[in-house]
Amino acid sequence: MDGLTIQQAAQTTGWSPRMLRYVEDAGLIEPLRSAAGYRLYGPAELQRLRTLRALLAEFDIGLTDVGFAQRLRRDPALRTAVDHWFAAAPRRPENVPAADWLRWEQDKHQRLLNANAHLAPLDAHSTKPIKETA
Amino acid sequence: MDGLTIQQAAQTTGWSPRMLRYVEDAGLIEPLRSAAGYRLYGPAELQRLRTLRALLAEFDIGLTDVGFAQRLRRDPALRTAVDHWFAAAPRRPENVPAADWLRWEQDKHQRLLNANAHLAPLDAHSTKPIKETA
DNA sequence: AAAACCTTAGCACGAGCGTGTCAAGGTTGA
DNA sequence: TCAACCTTGACACGCTCGTGCTAAGGTTTT
Fold it and tell me: What is the pLDDT of residue B2?
């Protein structure tokens, strides 16, 4: 067998064997298997396990968060959908592409009339409110 | 007052007033407030609330996931840390830009040192561990 | 001033996360 | 062969997420 067994890997990385399996279930770090099905952790996996630990600790995030980040970069549809949602964000136009910014400016008047001045660039059609409390 | 109150906004967007407050707590969509502190939802917010609903439903993700995505794009340190982690992914170098892969190999040693520095007190060079089950 | 809103703060509760531990059974190596 | 490891599966438990509901108290509108 070539590589560390789960218990050995646990010792060098600081994770528990249980968590190593959990991390694998989460889709992050999946070690190779021996013929008999034993998990075999190589240097690369060990390294990744350590940095993963550091990542979680340093930013106080969860495995599921990293899992989501992974999904974000594996699923283009999700990625673009999320990007799109944030693109319409009500934040300062600093990081908004020129084209969007232009549209934002164009719609400004409309938005001001409706209400929220400095908030959000998004085609606000289909916005026929119930009874604008005016 | 200019804008929809929380209940009106709830009706047009399909969220409950409770959830609208929750979404606000999550840091996504924060409506303006009236002088008395009433939440005022404008067209932009309403639109964003609707698309958010669609986003969650379509990809079966949670508010916290979107919250994390937001954190990812607001916190550059987190962003690069996560990027870095995935960049070192044990995937076939197929989908890794040649340049990055090369640099990764070059930095390997340095990364190992760094990681070991602020991590598990256990010793570490992965290539000469406890007892390679060979 | 009373009805109908709004605010924050809290309890409750099922579902999922992060983790340990135990059980039943296969693998490895001395 | 036998101890020591591995595998999957499951129960358990505390914590957070998503959600509703109630309470105590301001605001708006009629």
Answer: 83
Report the pLDDT value the prediction gives residue B90, as an integer from 0 to 100. Answer: 57
Q: Smallest Cα–C1' distance to nucleotide D21: which residue has it?
A: B18
User: For domain A6-60, which CATH number applies: 3.10.560.10, 3.40.50.150, 1.10.1660.10, 3.30.70.240?
Assistant: 1.10.1660.10
Architecture, CATH, for domain B6-61: Orthogonal Bundle (1.10)
Over chain A (134 residues), the average pLDDT of each successive run of 10 is: 92 97 97 97 96 96 97 96 87 38 35 32 33 35
| Closest-CA distance of chain B to residue A57, Å | 10
Asked whether residue B59, judged by its CB, lies under 7 Å from any atom of the DNA or RNA strand C, the reply is no
Give residue limits of the domains in chain B: 6-61, 75-117
What is the reported pTM? 0.73
Q: Is B5 left (phi over 0), alpha (psi -120 to 50) or beta?
A: beta
Distance CA A67, CA A75 (A): 12
Instruction: Tell me the nt nearest to B19, Cα to C1'.
Output: D19
Q: How do B39-40 and B32-33 pair as beta strands?
A: antiparallel
